[in-house]
Amino acid sequence: MAVQEAITGFAVAVIREDGRWRCSPLDSAALTELDAAITELGKLRSTGAVFGLLAVDDEFFVIVRPSPRGASLLLSDAAAALDYDIAADVLDLLRVDPPDEDDEAVWPEGDLEVLADFGLPGVEMQVIVAEVDLYPDEQLQMVAQRCGFDEQFNALLDEL
């Protein structure tokens, strides 16, 4: 099930504290292991919101938002679970069965309202996810722009 080659992409922590946005890189292990992403995000001490944006192999993205009740998750393409352990882990945590191997449809799984409190309602997130002609980094840039942290996000991506 797992992709054997090295996973490319990026993992970014986004922090909203005292009305300001801050973005910082997460360890590359966050691209392959959901537990690593959740653990790293949990270590970031903040009085505000913390969430992670993971763009994996130009194929899909994951949004991870830890909370005391457990992580809220959004996987942009459920079919990615057939090839990537982290996507399979997301579906497992959501208690959703992976799609059939011959199903070619693209659909998200998880909480489309994961960033609604930052001005990105589920219906708009659905539009972003449905833009299948875009790469995950482009979709996440749309998320960043809509929520208001695009300057910080783009500056960090330029450094990576």
Note down, in words, how this protein is organized.
Helices cover 32% and strands 22% of the residues. It has five helices and six strands, in the order E-E-H-E-E-E-H-E-H-H-H. Helix 4 packs antiparallel against helix 5. It is globular, with a radius of gyration of 15 Å.
Count of discrete alpha- or pi-helical segments spanning 4 or more residues: 5
Note the gap between the termini: 28 Å
Give the helix proportion (percent range): 25-40%
Shape: globular
Largest sheet: 6 strands, antiparallel
Structural class: alpha+beta
Mean pLDDT: 90
Show unreliable segments. Answer: none
Lateral strand order in the biggest sheet? 2-1-3-4-5-6
| H-E order | EEHEEEHEHHH
Radius of gyration: 15 Å
- How much of the residues is beta strand, in percent? 15-25%
The overall strand count is 6
In short:
This protein is an alpha+beta fold.
Protein traits:
single chain, 5 helices, globular, alpha+beta, about 20% strand
Topology:
Blueprint: E1 9-17, E2 20-25, H1 34-43, E3 49-56, E4 60-65, E5 72-75, H2 85-94, E6 109-110, H3 122-130, H4 136-147, H5 150-159
Antiparallel strand pairs: 1-2, 1-3, 3-4, 4-5, 5-6
